[in-house]
Specification:
Distance between the termini: 37 Å
Number of strands: 4
Order of helices and strands: HEEEEH
Oligomer: single chain
Shape: globular
Radius of gyration: 14 Å
Length: 103
Amino acid sequence: MTETLIIELKQAVEWQHGGKARFVNVVPVKETQDGQTHWEGLVHVFELTGNQRSRLAFAWSSPAEGGAQPRLFAVLHMGGIKSPQDAVRAALTGRPRAPRSAK
């Protein structure tokens, strides 16, 4: 984890969602479905001030295809997005997935 990446993700959170972001921690996430890994990486958690919808945001980067700049994601902690895993899942599918019930 580099300081440069944290700064870029902080800026992405502030640009996309407004307010002021402060880095809190980083969480490893592995999103799988049917035994296949769809995404694996580190999600950075930011505390937000000045945003009326949420006090937390989750942000990460994913490699872009064709050698382009990595894509930055910034997702607010709200609604069905309650964890870094939920944020990645929502970004992959375009919507949060309901938690699986225990069997």
